[in-house]
Amino acid sequence: MSGHSKWATIKHKKGAADKARGKLFAKLIRQVEVAAREGGGDLDANPTLRTMYQKARDASVPLDTIERAIKRGTGELEGVRYEAASYEGYAPCGVAVFVEVLTDNRNRTSADVRSIFAKNGGSMAEPGAVAWQFERKGVVIAPRTVAEDDLMAAALEAGADDLVDEGDTWRVTCEPSDLSAVRAALESSGIPFDSAEVTMLPTNIVPLKTAEDAKRVLNLIDALDEHDDVQGVYANFDIPDAVLQAVAS
Q1: What pLDDT does 128 receive?
Q2: Distance (Å, rounded) from C-alpha 69 to C-alpha 27?
Q3: Check: CATH 1.10.10.200 for 3-74?
Q4: Is the Cβ–Cβ distance between 216 and 91 less than 8 Å?
Q5: What is the 3-state secondary structure (H, E, C) of the chain?
Q6: What is the pLDDT of residue 74?
């Protein structure tokens, strides 16, 4: 698992996710709305919308709120028009960072993201400078208590590519288009999982071996995460568990 993923897990366990529930809801609703606008409001015919819908439901976003977002996306209700954009850059220690946003003002968001990089010891890069260091994948995280053979049988039959032991969790990876099928297979088999989402996985890793370096990188990642327009922040760092625990405490 990437260091960023482990950091997000620790923050969740510390209760930070609950404090940010309102902000999380707003981001998920925006994703649903854009998916509906780009591919229509039919969940069966729009796999991206189906994925965003399920992600919102997993986060306990109220059903009527999701339905209104879909209607805004399809034009049945009025709403702000958002567009997708991405930014690339480097955190301290040469860590590659890929940022995805949904914005109603590209110029404002671009300036904000650039400022966040600069204030936290990073720098923006040209399009394509770091994107090649990531690949888009469907990822399912399951607890380590799940039997490996059961998880592998259900996931691989549904189209998963790989199963990786992450220490205290299992990570199942698949093509983004297969995520719904893999998720459904696990559910039908009664196999519990912590999350199922489309994400960007790094193809190479930059190790951060000291608490000082880890804090510098995580300060930038957290600042980007906090921006209302930012939907996802992906980075190719890895932090040893001992260092990560020291930072989290």
Answers
A1: 93
A2: 11
A3: yes
A4: yes
A5: CCHHHHHHHHHHHCCHHHHCHHHHHHHHHHHHHHHHHHHCCCCCCCHHHHHHHHHHHHCCCCHHHHHHHHHHHHCCCCCCCCEEEEEEEECHHHCEEEEEEEECCHHHHHHHHHHHHHHCCCEEECCCCCHHHEEEEEEEEEECCCCHHHHHHHHHHCCCCEEEECCCEEEEEECHHHHHHHHHHHHHCCCCCCEEEEEEEECCCEECCCHHHHHHHHHHHHHHHHCCCEEEEEECEECCHHHHHHHHC
A6: 93
Pick from 154, 149, 155: which is nearest to 172 by CA? 155
55-75, pLDDT tens digit by residue? 999 888 999 999 999 999 999
For 83-132+205-248, CATH gives: 3.30.70.980
Token reading at 56: 């919102």
| Domain covering 133-202 assigned CATH 3.90.1200.10 in the classification | no
Domains of the chain, by residue range, sit at 3-74, 83-132+205-248, 133-202
pTM of the predicted model as reported, rounded to 2 decimal places = 0.83
Q: CATH topology of 83-132+205-248 equal to that of 133-202?
A: yes
| N-term to C-term CA, the chain | 20
Residue carrying the six token digits 């009025």: 78
**Phi, psi dihedral angles at 24 (to 5 degrees):** -65, -45
The residue among 103, 71, 76 whose CA lies nearest residue 87 is 103
